[in-house]
Request: fold
Amino acid sequence: MKVFLAIDIGATSGRHIAGFKQNGQTVTEEVYRFPNGAKTENGSLVWDTESLFREIKAGIKKAFEKYGAIESVAIDTWGVDYVLMNGDKEIYPCYAYRDSRTERAIDKVHALMPFDELYARTGLMFASFNSIYQLYCDKLDGRLENATDFLMLPEYFSYKLTGVKAKEYTDATTTGLVNAETHAFDEDIVERLGLKKALFSHKLENPSFVLGRFLPEEEKEVGGSAKVMFCASHDTASAVYGIPMQGNQPYISSGTWSLMGIKSESAVLVSHDLSNEGGVNNTFRYQKNIMGMWVVNKLKETLVRPMSFAEMDAAAEESGYNQTFDVNDKAFFAPTNMREAILEYMKKHGIPLPETEKDLVRSVYRSLAKCYAETYALLEKNTQKTYEELYIVGGGAKNKPLNRFTEEFTKKKVIALPIESTALGNLKIQMGE
Reply:
């Protein structure tokens, strides 16, 4: 029996999920799970990549102890974040996408290449955390002077395991520097921004690319040898590939972010409000980033009367409060206190305030559902197609009140699949499916 290992790391947790074939079906087993989160260092939000790599190896070791042999390993994470390298040395820190440092770079980038032109070339919607703005910050700060490489996080961890540096297509498309037509780094953007050309000299490899096997020292530490390959290393790309979907219907990969879109053979360059991110086999996911479970999780942490997630779900059903707000507003991106941020937003915009914590919870759920409906309508408008269903996968698919509100607002059939879709997509690629 061949065992494959998907290492799926999100912004709040990571998990190692083994997969193997049994009676023609893919069976998955969680081997290891660990917490994750950005930390504050010298006033900035950063990732502890050394700790993450230790957790990656700890999970691989557990897998070898359980199964004896592992055929291959592939790592996926969120997009946009990367590690700068000077040869084999890291240039720290590894900044986290919710850090505010890019605010000073955005206007400077757009002065060199207006966003309309950037979008026409890359198809990537504007987000202050896109790698293009992070890299320009690094240029302003002199961090690129000694840099020989920038490795997106899955590329970096794969390099640490194998000693091989390579670039993967789906994650590269989250940088805002990949041309949607050529599927390669856009040389004109790099030149106009004055970024170091050597950083973009690698060919973008497609999922299933094999980097090599564990380095001898890593093999010794984890207790075995395995092949390391690229899955669709941007986690949403793996998640969408893992959806057992009939036809091509809109999806939501619901986690810290809710990524809502459709699969497309070519970039849809109609609206700046939606993004074209890379999928398997040089395809695209035409989608929108919606604040998602981040708002729910951060509200839970700041409620005056603490509630479990089950109690929050019940509260959303019990309340009769139906006011909504723009859940995607930047006020909710990284507030100190989510509860206070929502109430302040409501006051500022003249929205009748909730009377109870139950009202507040219901408002968040319904605001998310309303945003889903607005995005669904935009997808239909821009693709000039009508869809009938909405597939929801990931942790957020377990939220029954949110699913019901989503059906109410979209007037579409919601198919909720609370499965580890990202890990399934990761494993499918490793298995050659």
Summary: DSSP finds 15 helices and 20 strands in the chain. The chain has a mean pLDDT of 97.
